[in-house]
TrEMBL record:
Organism lineage: Eukaryota, Metazoa, Chordata, Craniata, Vertebrata
Protein name in UniProt: aldehyde oxidase
Active site location: E1221 (proton acceptor)
Positions contributing to FAD binding: L225, I226, L227, G228, N229, T230, S231, L232, D323, L367, R385
Cofactor: [2Fe-2S] cluster; FAD; Mo-molybdopterin
Ranges for domain 2Fe-2S ferredoxin-type: 1-53
Top EC class, one word: oxidoreductase
GO cellular component: cytoplasm
Species: Bos indicus x Bos taurus (Hybrid cattle)
Similarity comment: family membership: Belongs to the xanthine dehydrogenase family.
Pfam families to which the protein is assigned, alphabetical: Ald_Xan_dh_C, CO_deh_flav_C, FAD_binding_5, Fer2_2, MoCoBD_1, MoCoBD_2
Length: 1294
């Protein structure tokens, strides 16, 4: 079980809770996120954690075995949660459907794998499996594409299996843990007395009877009732809400009563959403359709409402805000309220929703149940919901709509419309509905209804949540969908009846949740390769099984050491201000608080002049660290932070956006520039010139394991042991050394494994390590510092947002003659890696294209936001989006498909890049052609066009994107690596190297290398950890070269050892490895060797604008197809095909996993991941509730990945390539497929096809880009005037 977000939003802490149902007497199993489950609520329940399911020491459960052997783990931090969600599913359904599997994993986030292998492991348990039958068409995903001569089609040496199902142990439900007998006895004689649990500041009271509950509520009217804790829990954690008394009605059977009558259904307020779903589904199956309109609408809504673990906890209704309120309100639901004074029934009407005193809950009242009446003939009810992503997201807008017609007519007798997400509570459009009574259900009514709804359901420009135009558009778009739905129903009842045009009917279809299918292709090893040689084989991740059992130890899993203290950080609440005074008096008085660490306590250097570890005199951004509190517990330290008073004086100018930075000439470093040819002359000779802008938003790393460090001071010589989650332990070591003013040799950094990094754990861990080390030195105690998700996201920064301007000159045939791109990135308040990112961005801008006349310029902007830093791809994913947008714009102007323009301008022969580095594009062209063929691109392009002709409100788009990704650092010294290999006298081998295990499988690959070189099985080999005491002066594990350079070092060490053993082996060629080692020891031959790799040569001369900055390139191509809903902006990914040039993969399972994971992460960058800041510079999106990384439902319905066969490179270890970053940009194929679909919509509506490219392509951007009559209505109807006290928008974007 892992702690990650604290909000129930990531699933890392999932466990199984089992309870006996008091009605059915059956044992029910639920997956729950422990961060939201109060321990007191578990009275009478059995809790099973991943450790209880199986372990390496006893026996593995089939779920654990299969997720590991299916390569469903990378960093492994999320794996225990995944295991528990699947395990709970299997306890309830031993042979689940694939849809149930998808639903069960909906609340579990993974940042590494891309989800595909996790689903693959789960599908081995499923009753039915589509296998390779694609969507019931009977076609096999292995069928050849358009070109039968494709190398991917020659199957003799192409493998498509990464694991062997037949090797898995079977699932035997009879061997599962039983429900504890003592708990069974408790349920047979349930405790009726009130149970009270006293905490330090909170008292938990759990009454045993309904009467006791009412008495307690009368005695403590302000005490909240807590059941699911999905609302109160996060508020208590993030907002500091404290309730001295909490009432838990979990044992009150009256709140779980379900009553069926002839006219309706009463559901107890204590029923979870999962129970409500089952109840409604049962009722729908029992009653005629005309009576279940409201129930069907509720069921549809529940499908996308929340993840399985939240559904099992969340209660049916919050009186003030609930996702279900709009539907219950239009369905004429009634609330049954009870208090000591008696019972009361109030309708869930506009009066209740508006919070009128006469229709509101009294403090002493509780909601006992909700009555939902049956619908009737000629009555139609629908529900609508649009969120940032398909699953487990709060809605931008949701709605419930109901209409009742006079019998036999289309005359409106009653109409009810309510909306959520457009105000603090659910909003009823009562006036609009009243004015439409008696009208016919026709186009005239539709137009009038939309105008009236926009007038009544108004949102000011500064409304909380922002997205005002989008929300107002959804208000009328939802009504239009309802209008079409009702027309279809009336068509069945009234004949003849005018029906909508068939092209409009696609607006009625929701995107279904589909279990992804696909295939992974790679070249098999040579038939002559010894079976013992693991190189090139899909070997399981070394820690895979430990990940699955929870036995893999991460930094914060290290048990508490003697006299350990906890540290919490105090950060700035101002964006740019002078610190006037700090009052620590109240904080230091809190019991358990030991000390406060300030800049004055630093004996050495406090960072650099421009980038302080701890702020001195002034702060440069919200989230800058000012000092740290040390206390006996984490809770005490955080409590002390709340008592600290800091007085600021605001400074100016405060700059947040790139636009403002350009205006104030605020930059971090000089402009970087590359140029070739004569660009001005070329522009004069072209047929056309297009200019445009591209905006790319930032991205949060969202590694599952937040930043954390444990510093243990030793008793002598100022020695320190530092256990830290980092990609660069040597940098942590150096920073701590300079901060404490002690030699580097006194400091040892240990990295066992890292729960994801993606560049975010290169520089920042050194800051946290140094601050914690100062605390350890000052107090003499070990210090543990673990950041909450909110603090991590607030403090650390992420991917640089980019603003790009381009000017492109081209001929009418699509040939580009001149391209001028200027990019600005938002660097934040300090330099960090921004200059390097700018350089790499400029170096990589040309991507796969040979354009004779180029000018690339880049600047890093200085703003008052946390410093942005390294992130997977290092500028390439942002910058190259500008280049590809140029290509798309040229294609639109020429009337050509974008892929034709890409082909026309692609490198074709051995050539030189803009910085004069020579390369051969043969593999690039092969990847492009293989991708076109494997995806059947040209046939599918025609199918997309045909679909778009037949559908007005749904559009499809398809795009294929090439990639030339440069690997490595632009400096030779950063490519060096070392390794240390020990052979022990029993023949076992310990390998240590300078790389860090981030989930990318570097340790697995290093043992594969050692196994081949020493010619012994991998079982003889072991890697313990990365330690600066074992391998000094290491380079950050980054830039995709970790396995390359460390593999060379391990190879060198092993070859040295084998050369020493040669005489012994020659003397006894038939001997065993163990005999040889024993003989070597007896002959005093050293069995320890240091391996070293001096590095790839790399350099760049920016004065001349030329060099060989990169050792080699990775080539690839991706084709993606999507479908968008023009009315809501939602989209679904239909299919993605990726072809990647991996040359000779060291481990195809790990490499394909890296490609898939990077692709999904890139897809998130370009579609859902959006950082929002307040006008004061405070990050709003500080957790999974607001910041949406892709979930399992975002994986393309068909997802195929192929490694290009028969490719070689002599430079690298065994001709392999580093693939950690390159797949990131291929996620842009989804973005360009979306823009292709948007362009089709705009073309059909006679709107200009060229539009400002903005990433991410959120539902808001897509909807507003698909301009139509409803968006026009929104812009015509003015927004309410902004009050003087709110002159600024709700949110800004970097």
């Amino acid at each position: 079980m892992r702690y990650a977000c604290g909000r129930g939003g990531c699933g890392a802490c999932t466990v199984m809770v089992s309870k006996r149902d008091p009605t059915s007497q059956e044992i029910r199993h639920f997956s729950v996120t422990t961060c939201l489950v109060p321990i007191c609520s578990l009275y009478g329940a059995a809790v099973t954690t991943v450790e209880g399911v199986g372990s390496m020491k006893t026996r593995l459960h089939p779920v654990q075995e299969r997720i590991a052997k299916s390569h469903g783990t990378q960093c492994g931090f999320c794996t225990p949660g995944m295991v528990m969600s699947m395990y709970t599913l299997l306890r309830n359904h031993p042979q689940p459907s694939e849809e149930q599997l998808l639903e069960a994993l909906g609340g579990n986030l993974c940042r590494c794998t891309g989800y595909r292998p996790i689903l693959a492991s789960g599908k081995t348990f499923c009753l039915e499996s589509n296998g390779c039958q694609q969507k019931g068409t009977g076609k096999c995903c292995l069928d050849l594409g358009e070109n039968d001569s494709s190398s991917l089609g020659r199957k003799s040496d192409i493998c498509t299996e990464l694991f062997v199902k037949e090797e898995f142990q079977p699932l035997d439900p009879t061997q599962e843990l039983i429900f504890p007998p003592e708990l069974l006895r408790m349920t047979e004689n349930p405790e009726k007395r009130t149970l009270t649990f006293h905490g330090e500041r909170v008292t938990w009271i759990s009454p045993g009877t309904f009467k006791d509950l009412l008495e307690l509520k009368a005695k403590h009217p302000e005490a909240p009732l807590i059941l699911g804790n999905t609302s109160l829990g996060p508020a208590m954690r993030s907002k500091g809400c404290l309730h001295p008394i909490l009432l838990s009605p979990a044992r009150i059977s009256e709140l779980n009563v379900v009553s069926k009558t002839n006219d309706g259904l009463t559901i107890g307020a204590g029923c979870s959403l999962a129970q409500v779903k089952d109840i409604l589904a049962e009722r729908v199956s029992e009653l005629p359709e005309e009576k279940t309109q409201t129930y069907r609408a509720l069921l549809k809504h529940l499908k996308s409402l929340a993840s399985q673990d939240l559904m099992t906890k969340a209660i049916t209704l919050s009186p003030y805000y609930s996702d279900l309120n709009p539907i219950l309100a239009v369905g004429n639901a009634t609330l049954n309220l009870t208090s000591e004074e008696g019972t009361r029934r109030i309708p869930l009407s506009e009066h209740f929703l508006a919070g009128l005193a006469s229709a509101d809950l009294k403090p002493e009242e509780i909601l006992e149940s909700v009555y939902i009446p049956h619908s009737q003939k000629w009555e139609f009810v629908s529900a609508f919901r649009q969120a940032q992503c398909q699953q487990n997201a709060l809605p931008d807008v949701n709605a419930g709509m109901r209409v009742l017609f006079k019998e036999g007519t289309d005359i409106i007798e009653d109409l009810s419309i309510t909306y959520g997400g457009v105000g603090a509570a659910t909003v009823s459009a009562h006036k609009s509905c009243q004015q439409l009574l008696g009208r016919q259900w026709d186009e005239l009514m539709l137009d009038e209804a939309c105008r009236r709804l926009l007038d009544e359901v108004s949102l000011p420009g500064w409304a909380p949540g922002g997205r005002v135009e989008f929300k107002r558009t959804l208000v009328v778009s939802f009504f239009f969908k309802f209008y079409l739905q009702v027309l279809q129903e009336l068509k069945k009842l009234i004949k003849p009846f005018p029906v909508p045009v068939n092209r409009f009917l696609s607006a009625l279809e929701d995107f279904p949740g589909t279990v992804p299918q696909g295939v992974q292709r790679y070249q098999s090893v040579d038939s002559h390769q010894p079976l013992q040689d693991p190189v090139g084989r899909p070997v399981m991740h070394l820690s895979g099984l430990k990940h699955a059992t929870g036995e893999a130890e991460f930094c914060d899993d290290i048990p508490m050491v003697d006299k350990e203290l906890c540290m919490a950080l105090v950060t700035s609440t101002r964006a740019y201000a002078k610190i006037i005074s700090i009052d620590l008096s109240e904080a230091l008085e809190i019991p358990g608080v030991v000390d406060v660490i300030t800049a004055k306590d630093i004996p050495g250097t406090n960072g650099t002049e421009d980038d302080k570890l701890l702020a001195v005199d002034e702060v440069l951004c919200v989230g800058q660290i000012i000092f740290a509190v040390v206390a006996e517990t984490d809770v005490q330290a955080k409590r002390a932070i709340e008592k600290i008073k800091i007085t600021y004086e605001e400074l100016e100018p405060i700059i947040f956006t790139i636009k403002d930075a350009i205006k104030h000439n605020s930059f971090l470093c000089p402009e970087k520039k590359l140029e070739q040819g004569n660009i001005e002359e070329a522009f004069e000779k072209v047929d056309q010139i297009v200019e445009g802008e591209v905006h790319v938003g930032g991205q949060e790393h969202f590694y599952m394991e937040t930043q954390r460090v444990l510093v243990i001071p030793k008793t002598e010589d100022k020695e320190l042991d530092i256990y830290v989650s980092t990609q660069d332990p040597a940098h942590v070591q150096k920073t701590v050394s300079s901060t404490l003013n002690i030699p580097i040799n006194r400091i040892t950094c240990h990295v066992k494994r890292v729960g994801g990094g993606f560049g975010g754990k290169i520089g920042r861990p050194a800051v946290f390590g140094a601050i914690a080390a100062v605390g350890a030195l000052k107090t003499g105690h070990p210090i543990r510092l673990v950041l909450d998700r909110e603090d991590d996201m607030l403090i650390t920064g992420g991917r640089h947002p980019l603003f790009g301007k381009y000017k492109v000159g081209f001929m009418n045939n699509g040939r580009i003659k001149a391209l001028d791109i200027e990019c600005f990135i938002n660097g934040g308040c300090t330099l960090d890696d921004s200059e390097l990112v700018t350089e790499f961005l400029i170096l990589k801008l040309e991507n796969a294209y040979k354009i004779r006349n180029l000018r690339f310029r880049g600047r890093a902007c200085l703003t008052n936001l946390p410093s942005n830093t390294a992130f997977r791809g290092f500028g390439f994913p942002q910058g190259t989006l500008v280049t590809e947008s140029c290509i798309t714009a040229v294609a639109a102007k020429c009337g050509l498909p974008p892929e034709k323009v890409r082909e026309k301008n692609m490198y074709r022969t051995v050539d030189k890049t803009i910085y004069k580095q020579a390369f051969n594009p043969e593999s690039l062209i092969r990847c492009w052609n293989e991708c076109l063929d494997a995806s059947s691109f040209h046939n599918r392009r025609k199918q997309v066009e045909e679909f778009n002709k037949k559908n007005y409100w749904k559009k499809r788009g398809i795009a294929v994107i090439p990639m030339k990704f440069s690997v490595g650092f632009a400096a030779t010294s950063y490519h060096q690596a070392a390794a240390l290999v020990h052979i022990y006298t029993d023949g076992s081998v310990l390998v240590t190297h300078g790389g860090n295990e981030l989930g990318q499988g570097i340790h697995t690959k290093m043992l594969q290398v050692a196994s081949r070189e020493l010619k012994i099985p991998m079982s003889h080999l072991h890697i313990c950890e990365t330690s600066t005491a074992m391998v000094p002066n290491t380079i950050a594990t980054a830039a995709s070269v970790g396995a390359d350079i460390n593999g060379k070092a391990v190879q060198n060490a092993c070859q040295i050892l084998l050369k020493r053993l040669e005489p012994i082996i020659k003397k006894n060629p038939e001997g065993t490895w163990e005999e040889w080692i024993e003989a070597a020891f007896e002959q005093r031959i050293s069995l320890s060797a240091t391996g070293y790799f001096r590095g790839y040569k790399a350099f760049m001369d920016w004065e001349k604008g030329e060099g060989d900055p990169f050792p080699y390139y990775v080539y690839g191509a991706a084709c993606s197809e999507v479908e968008i809903d023009c009315l809501t902006g939602a989209h679904k990914k239909i299919r993605t095909d990726i072809v990647m040039d991996a040359c000779c993969s060291l481990n195809p399972a790990i490499d394909i996993g890296q490609i898939e994971g990077a692709f999904i992460q890139g897809m998130g960058l370009y579609t859902t991941e959006e950082l929002k800041y307040s006008p004061e510079g405070v990050l709003y999106s500080r957790g999974p509730d607001e910041y949406k990384i892709p979930t399992i439902s975002d994986v393309p319905e068909e997802f195929n990945v192929s490694l290009l066969p028969s490719s070689q490179t002599p430079l690298t270890i065994y001709s392999s390539k580093g693939l950690g970053e390159s797949g990131m940009f291929l996620g842009s194929s989804v973005f360009f497929a979306i823009t292709d679909a948007v362009a089709a919509a705009r073309k059909e509506r006679d709107i200009a096809e060229d539009f400002t490219v903005k990433s991410p392509a959120t539902p808001e951007w897509v909807r507003m880009a698909c301009a139509d009559r409803f968006t026009e209505m929104v812009y015509i109807c003015p927004l309410p005037l902004e009050p003087p006290s709110h002159p600024t928008p709700w949110a800004i974007f970097k």
